[in-house]
Write a structure and sequence with these properties.
11 strands, 7 helices, 37% helix, single chain, four-stranded mixed sheet
Length: 225
Amino acid sequence: MAAIGLKSDAQIQLQVLDELRWDTRVDAAGIGVAVDGGVVALTGQVDSYAARLAAQEAAHRVAGVLDVANDIRVELPGSHVRSDTDIAHAVRTTLLWDIVVPEERIRTTVTDGWVTLEGTAATWNQREDAERAIRHVTGVRGVTNMIALTGPAADSTTVQRALEDALVRRAEREADRIRVRVHDGTVTLSGYVRTYAEKRAVLGAAGHAPGVLDIVDQIRIEPLV
């Protein structure tokens, strides 16, 4: 039974469906929504990888959603089907024009529209930016990000102090509810936030911390904490 003040799974399901209909990037008619204990499962199909991610973001925006399992398939319409060679050229051009991404250090492989990113980047945020840059390339069905971080891992105490200071600056309400552990450049974040937006703020702060080579996200969303 849901705790007093918390939404029921049925309420969350209706609100996720409403949010999907409201988001113009998503054709909600092709998406199924099931909710169990605040965990949302998305199924069905969309016509682009960007729409698949937009549906996931829409579900996360609904208060009361704790986690989202995205099982939506990407089925490209005939007009969007491109050869892997064409997609590879488009991906390379996109990376070239993105001034944040060190494209010369990134290799890509395209198989049946699925793009695998390899190579190296100096920071965690550069790694994530490379993936974000190509999400909207026509013909892309999905992305596997295998880019390795090459910057030296900073002293754990230094990383932890820098990150905790950043959380106070950028996510003040969350700072006292987030636990930070650092080992060999890997930052593990745990604890609770109220919303998905707050979670993104915490992860964004961690991505800029010097010496961070990887981030393990164990943060849970609890609306009433």
